[in-house]
């Protein structure tokens, strides 16, 4: 490594010599050298700008891949690498300017420590004679600053110079290393009496100015969060200031002007290759606004979360419910209400949504807590102490949420949050660490049993409860005795998967329904909204002027589902909730099928998502979108035929219509008594 640095120093020493000869001033030669390096590095800056733009262009696709492979890091890494190859993006290319800058600084340090060799071009034998003479006078010249020491002593005046060294001494005496009153051969000292302390101070200030501009116009920094930018700025200021104390002041001058000249260089790069020409700036704006909103929520509710965590720890618990967000309470509500009516059990409800309505509800039987998904949730579950824990979240024990390490006898119950196929839409083994499953229908029972047999896993207790949310929806729908909509309502509710309706054809569909007699509501999946909120804010802005189109991102109510005359979806389980509640048809778009478990077809039971597709309505390909208006109109005319088909399918495939909350509640009370 030292040999490489020596080669670099030799190269930059030649350039510094040219600069010094050109301006005949040591300080100015450093500034000219800095300008030269920025000029030489400019083509590399353009190359890295192009590479950074590719990364910015890939950002939405990478976000989609994170959603697709949220729990499969290996497959995400493979897909990411494939995308890099397709876009010809080189992850290490952005490091090249930094590596070159490090080499320049290391080489320049060598030049600054050896000005006799590089600036004055003295021969090694002559320098060796000087060194030997100084050592004869009692000086110890063994460190890397021996040339600076000799220069300093000679320029301060030294007597008894041998005749053969007089020419060298005169040449050194005429070599002025001062610049605007600063001796650039000396190291700054942290002292008010040492004016060189201004060099580190100015080094830090120049780093701050560079970071301010970089945070505003650099392509990659456009995506960086507020605290990321602040952290990088603080680091650069601290590093620049500290570094300037370690080296001769001449290197500090290079660092100061290097930071300052980087500013016009960045502007020039953006003029030659403007990011807004290649990047969706609205996407970046919305992304940053979303990040700021999340940070506000974290700040706003951080203290509440800490208090709730400690309150939860101190509470004696028997039944615990966990919800990932506000939209999950509806799956538990019928069970909670039944237990509250029929027992004296206290229930503890943990939600990771600070604005979950249950946190503001006054319920004597329910204690609610806000625990976010990052800091406190993992230890909460690791130390969980209760009798029964109910969750709608699959993959218990496989990822961040584990079974309790405090109690091994907790009964973990999986509560389905959809009526679709577990084998198809959940990952392989997603329910293996649950003790009990509240089963929606005969299809789910057969799937679980066949999966257990196939993989020889521990049999779970399968309770034929039915689907409590469906019962509640049917009851509500019948009580309200809804009248026919004068203006037909069409609900578009896609699944959460890559290449869903939102990704493939939402604009194409909405354009077909613009200025039609239909009222169209887009209700994306909660998880996609959570991961891509900026996308839906952008859609809301885009269709704000279309009176018959609404983009809905609040999932706390089912009224939208019940009001619709026709549902358009792809592979979402909302098709079952909608059809089995209203007995109205569903128009399926044949996007690529949502397959969370590639081994779903190893069992005999066929997924209900496939077998009922043309029973609940009609399926069309993405290529038929141009005809969607005519197809939907025709389906609405055949509503009576679909009503009978859907009612028969509901009776055949769903357990205990109208009794699910009772069966679920009775099972929980029985287990608690046991």
Automatic annotation (TrEMBL):
Residues 26-270 form the Membrane insertase YidC/Oxa/ALB C-terminal domain. The keyword Lipoprotein does not apply. It comes from the Bacteria. The keyword Cell membrane applies. Gene3D superfamilies: 3.40.50.12580. Keywords: Cell membrane, Chaperone, Membrane, Protein transport, Transmembrane, Transmembrane helix, Transport. It holds the Pfam family 60KD_IMP. It is a multi-pass membrane protein. Its main location: membrane. The chain crosses the membrane at residues 26-48, 95-120, 234-257. InterPro entries: Glycerophosphate_synth, TagF_C, YidC/ALB3/OXA1/COX18, YidC/Oxa/ALB_C, YidC_ALB_C. CDD domains: 5TM_YidC_Alb3 (cd20070). It is found in: Cell membrane; Membrane. Belongs to the OXA1/ALB3/YidC family. This is Membrane protein insertase YidC. It comes from Coprococcus ammoniilyticus. The lineage of its organism: Bacteria, Bacillati, Bacillota, Clostridia, Lachnospirales.
